[in-house]
Amino acid sequence: xxxxxxxxxxxxxxxxxxxxxxxxxxxxxxxxxxxxxxxxxxxxxxxxxxxxxxxxxxxxxxxxxxxxxxxxxxxxxxxxxxxxxxxxxxxxxxxxxxxxxxxxxxxxxxxxxxxxxxxxxxxxxxxxxxxxxxxxxxxxxxxxxxxxxxxxxxxxxxxxxxxxxxxxxxxxxxxxxxxxxxxxxxxxxxxxxxxxxxxxxxxxxxxxxxxxxxxxxxxxxxxxxxxxxxxxxxxxxxxxxx
Length: 242
Ligand code: OAD
Hints:
Oligomer: single chain
Radius of gyration: 18 Å
Helix content: 25-40%
Strand order of the largest sheet: 4-3-2-8-9-10
Shape: elongated
Distance between the termini: 18 Å
Order of helices and strands: EEHHHHHEHEEEEHEHEEHEE
Bound molecules: 2'-O-acetyl adenosine-5-diphosphoribose
CATH topology of the largest domain: Rossmann fold
Structural class: alpha/beta
CATH superfamily of the largest domain: TPP-binding domain
């Protein structure tokens, strides 16, 4: 059990493994390819320039899969932890689905963007809610300005969102916990090295992540099985659903 005291400030980093038990495939490992493309080949500004229809086909598929998914006990346990800790809790996710929100999380920082939002690739119109699917041969969605509407996702080679807030929270945390992330995609993979001298660093997932040596502790298993009984907050076990 992981004991949290009133002086603890918790930074949670989640990755695709947290949504795996909800039926959303992870990027790496078994089932990590889409029609023989690696994620890097369909999620980059280069892919968008070369073949925007292929990119929309990929994100339309992902919208359909995520649209059917329901939060699992890992999402519910983290929402309960947020409720218990209030301002002492910061949730940063690399996931673009909305399962943390569906589980009741109030303040999720989506560093890689959000699957159910789109934006224009040309003008400054803010990102907007969009659950549309644009599979070929449908026309590409267009903005009033003449630009093309693209997914509101941080692609390879682009800068993740909200990095200033994220580094502020990393600096202030006493416990850093990464859950279900393989530790290969930067900058998230280096968060643990950034905090390891001032915070406990804990990993949760079934396998060792690539950056394992920077973590002081690890709990090996599925997030949905471990998280519901992992936390004790201010002397009381955290109850999920209670
Ligand atoms: P990966 O697919 O690289 O890694 C998923 C991790 O989840 C692996 O380490 C698995 O061991 C672990 N895992 C699998 N099932 C699990 C379970 N039930 N409970 C806990 N862990 C489990 O996913 P990420 O590290 O999230 O970016 O990938 C990072 C980024 O790479 C993604 O956000 C995405 C991708 O390219 C963008 O799309 C911009």
